[in-house]
Amino acid sequence: MSARRLLVLFGFRGRGGFNEAALQGAERAGRAGHPLHAEWVAATDPAARAERLAQLCNGNPDLVIVHGGQGDAPVAEVAPHFPRTQFAITQGSHTAANVASYEILQEHSAFLAGILAGLRSEGDGATDGRATGGRAAHLSGERVRPGLKGRAAYADGVRRVTGQEPLTGFCGNQHDPDLGEAWTRALAAQRARVLFAMMDGGRDGVTRACREAGIWQIGNVLDWVARDPEVYLASALADSGLCVERAAADHAAGALAVGRITRFGLEAEASLRLVLGADVTAYERRELDAWSGRLASDEIEIASHYDGKEFALS
Q: 116 by DSSP, 3-state: which?
């Protein structure tokens, strides 16, 4: 009898971004002979998420991959009650005797995004008539560990170029386009010039507001430059689908890395890098190459916490 493997995603089917990367990873796993059945959990409350996860585990699956750091708390609650099921969390930190975590180090590409945002907000590198000057900004949804780490790395990059903190905020929901649009308009009113958006289903609203306000956007997880080069200056590629793919393969081989965190860094170049748009200048590219070299040689310790001020939507 073939193994029963589930992929649990928080959010809604059909929304692009972080969950899309997971589905692409699942497709690659399926082609390799390790199919995954996707289950969607729309709830945002951790208790409700844990309840739904427990319901899914009542079917005694062999493997449950929970996508995203927001899976830490539900898995920590549910996994002890299902010792025969193995769990893997992507971009998480919880581990146990039957729980593994797989993490792609998105802070590396987020740090480079901060360097680029700092360079662009400091100078007049834009070549398309957009307003010069302004602030580097950041927007994310839920306050989960990956989002906090990514924000800290981005802010570190901005600081190293400008000596200033970025505008930064968490809108509370990764998947609400209207909320993302409202926050982006508010950041634009505070002179945001380039915005690093760590969003999922809410990205469409962020992009609408960026387009109308003439703000450069830097995407994350996937290559957004290829999809909308008029709005996206760059994209901090950190394909978390690699974690889904590797967890499925390891489980199939009887080698799921339970009890520890498996991390993928810059050596996974196809899945982790800063993708640059055509409007990134030669000077910005040279600076990014220099900073990338310092990252690769471990000369830089990226900040893992952010203690600065946060923007709040009034």
A: helix
CA distances from 189 to 25, 136, 165, 194, 292 (A): 38, 13, 17, 13, 32
Q: pTM for the complete prediction? A: 0.80
CB 58 within 8 A of CB 64: no
- The alpha carbon of 164 is separated from its chain's Cα centroid by a whole number of angstroms, namely 23
How many residues make up the chain in this entry? 314
Bridge partners, residue 104, by sequence: 264
pLDDT tens for the chain, residues 1 to 314: 356 999 999 987 765 678 889 999 999 999 999 999 999 998 888 899 999 999 999 999 999 999 999 999 999 999 999 999 999 999 999 999 999 999 999 999 999 999 999 999 976 444 444 445 799 999 999 898 889 999 999 999 999 999 999 999 999 998 899 999 999 999 999 999 999 999 988 999 999 999 999 999 999 988 999 999 999 999 999 899 999 999 999 999 999 999 999 999 877 888 889 999 999 999 999 999 999 999 888 899 999 999 999 999 87
For residues 189 and 258, give the distance between their C-alpha atoms in angstroms, rounded to a whole number.
Answer: 47
**CB contact set of 213 (below 8 Å; sequence gap of 6+):** 184, 185, 188
